[in-house]
Specification:
This protein is of the alpha+beta class. The protein is built from 14 helices and 17 strands.
């Protein structure tokens, strides 16, 4: 049975896809007429200051339903039917993107924005079509942004305009295509597993049919893509060494050394010759491909090693794995497609504590102690934990329809959805380059494999 709280229910679509009215919401919360929709002028200004948009009922909460589950399949099927009805009625009108819109903006474009948000249930029709961008609109924008994987600033800039203006028929096609992907995982995946969704740059741990924890992730760049695959966690390495793979020696290490001869020593990377002896960086001819004849091994260390303090081994033909990073700033970015194929995991200690929860002698205190010691240590889960790296750009669960950018262009819809790639566009916050992930900020190389 479909959850009756599903925000895009057939009944809601019949009313223009508005969410449950604010009056009903307020009544259910014991609210009063103080929550009435604001009028123009002074009343609207006073309402902005009271920030009713901070109410938790207006926010998109993290789901407890696994992405890979029969529940998600059922709710995505329901969303497809509703979007088909929406498309049959003409979809939605776009919003002109000539100016940034935020709290206090005024004009016909705000009216168009309200209409657009009402169609998909992000804004209640009861708030009306005032030309003022008030806190009700701000809350609706945040909800829309959260559903589309955009930092929920409440400010409408280029990335949000692009998501608003993707036609309804394209969103329908996304849902239909991704339903096929979701159905392929609808069977029983076992009591414990991990899902890493590449377009969402997100990891979830699942236990007994419920999401146990969420983790932001840094995943492969467009030109160094993370693979779709199934693997198993067999081992956790604490304070790992990192051996630079040949592909990264060619693409990254040689140019870095040409630009800065101190790069290796500054980043605690040792040069090992074919006899296993350490040699100085000056022994390598950096104006040629001579470097590929050497091994480059980075010492362990939370602040210097590109793997951070933990590597999670998931043997696979692609030579990729999951790991910590010393450059945590990437986890706060909208654009987290920054690696050479491996996956950086936010809150890595919580993540490995869940992986090792049944392993004797490896509780959270022991994990913290192992990391603090700086010593090379390994731990193995009692049973290997299945890991699914998937590519899902549209789905519905826990009452919310979600869309993500087709970052690797695997949906095949051409330029309309392709235009969402923030790698080619400014992000919401000013003076931030979405391409400047942790690799660029820290100066560290990004790991892929350690062959």
């Amino acid at each position: 049975m479909i959850n009756t709280n599903f925000s895009l229910s057939r009944r809601i679509f019949a009313q223009g896809l508005a969410t449950t009215s604010l009056s009903a919401l307020i009544a259910g919360m014991g609210g009063s007429a103080a929550f009435a929709a604001p009028a123009d002028g002074f009343a609207a200004q006073a309402e902005w200051e009271q920030k009713y948009d901070a109410d938790a009922a207006l926010q998109v909460k993290r789901t407890v339903t696994p992405l890979l589950s029969q529940q998600t399949v059922v709710m995505t099927e329901a969303a497809i039917q509703q979007y088909r009805e929406l498309v049959a009625r003409g979809g939605w009108q776009g919003v002109a993107s000539g100016q940034t819109l935020k709290l206090g903006s005024n004009g016909a474009v705000v009216v168009a924005l309200r209409k657009r948000l009402m169609v998909t249930g992000d804004l209640d029709e009861a708030v009306g079509l005032s030309p003022v961008f008030d806190s009700y609109v701000q809350a609706a924008v945040r909800r829309f942004q959260a559903r589309h994987g955009i930092n929920a600033t409440g400010v409408v800039a280029q990335q949000t305009f692009q998501a608003l203006n993707v036609p309804a028929q394209d969103r329908l096609r996304q849902l239909e295509l991704n339903l096929v992907r979701l159905r392929s995982f609808a069977s029983n995946l076992g009591p414990r597993f991990i899902t890493m969704n590449i377009p969402a740059a997100a990891v979830e741990t699942v236990e007994s049919g419920t999401v146990f924890s969420h983790h932001a992730a840094g995943v492969g760049k467009i030109d160094r893509q993370s693979p779709v695959m199934q693997a198993k966690v067999v081992e956790v390495n604490f304070n790992p060494f990192w051996t630079v793979p040949v592909s990264i020696i060619r693409k990254d290490l040689i140019p870095k050394m040409q630009a800065d001869p101190n790069y290796l020593s500054d980043n605690k990377i040792r040069v090992i010759d074919k006899h296993g002896n350490e040699v100085p960086p000056s022994a390598v001819n950096w104006n040629s491909m001579d470097a590929v004849n050497y091994r480059f091994r980075q010492d362990p260390g939370a602040d210097v090693n590109s793997l951070g303090v933990v590597r999670v081994n998931i043997p696979n033909p692609h030579g990729v794995y999951m790991h910590d990073t010393p450059a945590k700033g990437v986890f706060g970015d909208d654009y987290r497609f920054v690696s050479s194929g491996c996956v950086r995991v936010q809150n890595i200690r919580d993540y490995v504590a869940w992986i090792l929860k049944d392993t004797p002698g490896w509780d959270r205190d022991r994990i913290d102690e192992a990391i603090r010691s700086g010593a090379r240590l390994d731990a193995r889960p009692v049973a290997p934990v299945p890991v699914h790296w998937v590519y899902v750009t549209a789905w519905a669960n826990d009452g919310i329809v979600q869309f993500r950018e087709d970052i690797y262009q695997r949906d095949g819809f051409g330029s309309t959805v392709a235009a969402l790639q923030p790698a080619l566009q400014p992000v919401e916050a000013p003076n931030r380059d979405p391409r400047a992930g942790a690799v660029q900020r820290s100066g560290l190389l990004d790991p892929m494999s350690d062959d």
